[in-house]
Queue: 2 jobs
Job 1
Amino acid sequence: MRLPGNLVVIGAGLLSVVNCLFAEQWTQTDAPALPWWGVAISADGGQLAAVNSDGGIYTSTNSGRIWTQKDAPSNNWGCIASSADGWKLVAAGGYYGKGSIYTSADAGATWASNSAPIANWNSVASSADGNKLVAASSSSLYTSTNAGGWWTSNDAPVLGWMSVASSADGTKLVAAAANLLGGVYTSTNSGNSWAKVTTGLGVWRAVACSANGDVIASEYGPLSGPPTRIYVSTNGGVSWTSNNVTGFSIDQHSPWAAIACSADGSRLVAMDGYIQTSTNFGVTWQTNDLPNEYWNSVASSADGHRFVAVSITNLSGGGGEIRTLYSEPSPRLNAALSSTNVVLSWMTPSTNFILQQNSDLISTGWIGLTNSYVLNSTNLEQEIFLPTIGSGFYRLATP
């Protein structure tokens, strides 16, 4: 495309075969058979972290192929969240007993406790930079603006909080309460105040939100009537749309257990006894090939082309497992003017892409650019700034 006011011409290309998400199968990793309760993933899908209630925290630096146990304190671990680069982690206890919140600034190598009270922590979420955190206990919501160094309670009502999610900048937060008077609540000021955005009685178990906080997906179990459904809002909770996906829980008293989405909110994954995925904001859903287990947590890379899921136990009573799903992404190359520069941007991909330049579209002389990419922490896109001098064609390509 030609940008007005300069001679730069931008093009996009992809040197790979793009596969459909559902053509791929979930792959079992080498993680030990343990009761896995929570999992987190970096924006590019390369750094993973998981917690189990036997007291262990494991991490992977190669998209889940190999897992390494970390030296973490015993804490009834139940949930974990990650910064966009996977370097900062926040994990909390709460399953099989109360626990504390710990943070790590070195990908799980060391852990620090903080001012958060001991409680039944059900969920934690992190901003892209890992500085703004939110945690949900059975009765309260707590937030931190300094990477977990200090935690503050706020005006959220005392409800059975089960799940929290955060926008990339940590300004917009979402929380779900599972008791009969609960619902979905949102905050637009990093948790200083909260507003209910759902009506009626029902059990809300899990929430996810896009990088900008506008797309919210939530799992709902009504008191009576239709079975469990997933609701999606594309305007920050002002209005909601349900779909035809229905719950098929192993335990009929336990609705969908977890949900996650890509940075733009278009690609979703939701789980309980089985796992379903969507590529169109939840309008339609696809059942995957995973076995029927007690799946409890799921996480998504920024582009939604790499998912990771963990289970507590299998149906025969054995240990749980960790599985991943990958489909090759085809990131869209965007261009915009910024002062005297052209800004090229693309969603952080879950595989390695390089930006190439050429003087025309005919020759084969594509050259990889050595300029440093910068992660935009508000939308999880990679950005590169180029001078608006001359003309050229650009494309994203696999090495």
Job 2
Amino acid sequence: MAVYLDLIFLINFLMDGALLLVTAWTRKLRFKWWRMACAAAIGASYVIMMLFPEFSALFTFAAKFLFSAIMIVTAFGFGKLPVFLRNLATFYLVSFALAGGIFGFHYFFMPSMDVWNGIVFTQSGGHLFQVGLSGWFIAVFFVFMIWYFLRVFRSTKQREALSALTAKVEVQVEDFVLSCTGLVDTGNQLYDPLTKTPVMIVEAGLWKEVIPESWIKQIQTSDVDKILAAMGADSFVWQDRLRVVPYRGVNRSTQFMLAIKPDSVKVYYNEKTLQTGKVLIGFDGGILSSDGSYQAIIHPMLLEA
């Protein structure tokens, strides 16, 4: 059997380099490319040594752990011991996650007959599993697992960052109380131009119990002027609370938003309860969050109430 050491070295060099890059992106570490290349070369060299029986002493757990530690130190430096241990643990986590994903996809698509053909029974009655993975399969699914891991990790980070900016909101208008989740948006500078009252935006669909259905449809189509024209015809007990707030749309044109003056708004943020009555609730006809994580946009002035 012919063994091409240069190809084995190159494949493992690329794979170790990819694992180190994913580790750096996961831990948000700064690195230099030449140090990453050196660390990947150390990992690839270890695989080459496994082909020679005289280096059998390097196949122990201690030797493998030592080579992994040398790779991490070479790529990112040592620094403080807790930082080094976290970098090393992340490297192992990424490696095990990608390797497990590759084997999982392999057996997921493998026919049952191939699984039975891979079982070897020993003299003691036990059985072993032979794993045969082609180079193309490993390469393709290795790239796919890296992409999937980064996608899941980034989406998790985004959700964590988003959850830090969300708060529970309670809006009270007489006996009606609306509870929802709001996103604190520091870029929200929407005010009533006459009273300088801040405007908190809430999905109009949450108010369908108290707002006429025809109004919600007109809010969704941005036909607020039709609501004003039919103000006397449609029965609405809170007509004296309604306001019209002008704002600039995406196309920079002036549009109007229907709003209501509540009795009070409570915001539960960072283990504090913030309450104010100086606020308007603007009705938005769309869905503010595609995944439903929040249904309102909290004006930053409410956090200073």
